[in-house]
Amino acid sequence: MLSDICTMDRMERVKEMLQASPSDSFLRHALALEYIKEGNDVEARTLFEAILTDSPDYIGSYYHLGKLLERAGETQLAITWYEKGMQYAKQAGSRHAYNELQTAYEDLVY
């Protein structure tokens, strides 16, 4: 019960900040993660897809979108997003993100 209240408080704070900066990828990503915590994968997916459409170099969202799609049984789409994420992580020189995406990708492909 208390964790539900804390999640709602965090979610409301993030939503308030987003009113001032509606295109802030960090805040939208944080809100998507809050939606996942409350079991609202539909809203989370919408936000992750919007982030990656607007800012395809926002690498952290690829992993979370892929995992969400895996849970929804959309394996091929998850693979596609992992591949895109690996491409952007490689371009950015983000070895950690690349390895994390590659592991998730390989778990599905092999």
Share of helix among residues?
Answer: over 70%
Q: Structural class, judged by helices and strands?
A: mainly alpha
Number of strands: 0
Radius of gyration: 14 Å
Number of domains: 1
Task: For this entry, give a set of tags.
110 residues, Serine Threonine Protein Phosphatase 5, Tetratricopeptide repeat
Question: What features would you describe in this structure?
Answer:
The chain has 110 residues and is an all-alpha fold. The chain has one domain: Tetratricopeptide repeat domain (Serine Threonine Protein Phosphatase 5, Tetratricopeptide repeat, Alpha Horseshoe). 83% of the residues lie in helices and 0% in strands. It has six helices and no strands. It has helices spanning 2-20, 25-37, 41-54, 60-71, 75-92, 95-109. The radius of gyration is 14 Å and the shape is globular. The mean pLDDT is 93.
Would you spell out the secondary-structure blueprint of this structure?
Layout: H1 2-20, H2 25-37, H3 41-54, H4 60-71, H5 75-92, H6 95-109
Helix pairs in contact: 1-2, 2-3, 3-4, 4-5, 4-6, 5-6
